[in-house]
Amino acid sequence: MKRKAVCMIPAIIALLTALTGCSPQSVELSDRLIVEAVGIDQADAGVIVTLQALDTHAAGAGSDPNEQGQVTRLYQFSGESVGQALSQIRAATGLTPLYSQARVLLFGRALAEAGLIEPLDFFLREYNARSDILIAMAEETAEQPVAADFGATTPGAVIIEDMLNGCRSDGTGAAVKLYDFMNLTYTGTDTAFCPVLGVTDQALENAKKPILRGTAFFKNGRLAFTAGEDLTRGMLFLKDRVKSGEIRAEGKNGTYTMRIVSSKTKISPTLNKNGRAHARIRVNTVCDVTEFTPKNDARRLGEAEAADAAAAGKAWTEALLNDTLRVLFYEKHADICRLARLVNLKYPRLAAAYAARMFEDTE
Predict the structure, then answer these.
(1) Alpha-carbon radius of gyration of the chain
(2) Which of 86, 143, 208, 213 fits as disulfide partner to 148, beta carbons 3.0 to 4.6 Å?
(3) Residue 103's closest CA among 158, 146, 40?
(4) pLDDT digits over 315-332, tens only?
(5) DSSP states along 141-196
(6) What tens digit of pLDDT does each residue of 171-205 get?
(7) Which uninterrupted H or E stretch holds 121?
(8) Confidence tier at 169 by pLDDT (50, 70, 90)
(9) Phi, psi of 347 (to 5 degrees)
(10) What is the Cα–Cα distance from 13 to 119, expressed in whole angstroms?
(11) 178 forms bridges with which residues in the sheet?
(12) Is residue 217 scored above 80 in pLDDT?
């Protein structure tokens, strides 16, 4: 037993030495290019990648940021592929890129029309990138929002990220992460989507501001069509993603502004003997009336008005969902309700046949 113990000591010491983090191959933070935002655009021969990266010297200078200026710098690289373009970073800057801190991944409209599977695949396979990064399609080029001056010392990537996170529950935008988008793309039946991001001028502040411009929908990894704010909100109700926000509805006794306290959507599909599907959609929304503009100035908000507000809210929701289903599901053939997946879970043997004729055989 003693001989075995003596023989194990050198092996343990060797193992501990091998596990130490102070290896010659480690990269110091000062030698890193800390990427905050990535924008990819279509080029004549490949892609152009615009990076917003943290300027570590400015960020750590310790002086007043208003005097120091912006804490980020812009870099731009081109190549036949995203990987080839980004492989130039080390030679151009002397720094090793760090993508794990990136907040947003944007792509231009032209690239979306050409196809996103190959360009975005790089960020799924790159070992130090985040697959849960928020993505969006730029209204024109991805360079515009990445390089835009939002008139703040806060990095532009943080401002865009906050806006995308803020729209998660109020129905104003269809925020989505990279891995969710790619999963929807690879399934073949589900419809992939992401928000459309624009940039507008703020005249009074002499700066720009990011703004949501609806939702982009994709088929086979390519841009199929875009939808505006109303259809986006209707889709998010159907996907059970609206948990806050406001509703403004016209009733018999006046106009009501209602704050959404909670909302729950449930979709239950059934197939009949002929293979046609009937989808039952139930939306249960609880609201508080925050403002009431009566048709009769003398009228106050009482029990009759509360009932009228409930009826107005119901009618508003039904009209929104009917318009959304008519345009996105029946006309654009976008499976915004994920009916193919729901039918597959409930009727696995009939799912393939249903998916082939889903938009004609669903009521």
Answers:
(1) 26
(2) 208
(3) 158
(4) 999 999 999 999 999 999
(5) -THHHHH---SSSS-HHHHHHHHHHHTTTTSS---EEHHHHHHHHHHSSSPEEEEE
(6) 899 999 999 999 999 876 678 999 999 999 876 66
(7) helix 117-125
(8) confident
(9) -130, 70
(10) 45
(11) none
(12) yes
Reading the block at residue 60, the tokens are 């750590």
Beta strand 134-138 with 207-219 is: unpaired
Question: Which long-range contacts (C-beta less than 8 Å, at least 24 apart) are formed by 291-294?
Answer: 291/256, 291/257, 292/254, 292/255, 292/256, 292/257, 293/254, 293/255, 294/253, 294/254
Contact 312, 250 (CB under 8 A): yes
15, pLDDT greater than 60: no
Residue 6's pLDDT is 47
Indicate the pTM of the whole model: 0.86
Buried b (16+ CB within 10 A) or exposed e, 42-51: bbeeebbbbb
Residue 353's identity, in one-letter code, is A
Give whole-number Cα distances, 36 to 1, 176, 208, in Å. 57, 18, 18
- What one-character DSSP code corresponds to residue 295? S
Longest dimension (CA), the chain: 99
C-alpha distance from residue 352 to each of 188, 334, 358 (Å) = 12, 17, 10
Give the highest mean pLDDT range of 17-21, 169-173, 255-259: 255-259
Q: Is 1 exposed, middle or buried (0-12, 13-18, 19+ CB in 10 A)?
A: exposed
What is the C-alpha separation between 318 and 39, in angstroms, rounded? 38
CB contact set of 252 (below 8 Å; sequence gap of 6+): 308, 311, 312
Residue 359, pLDDT score:
81
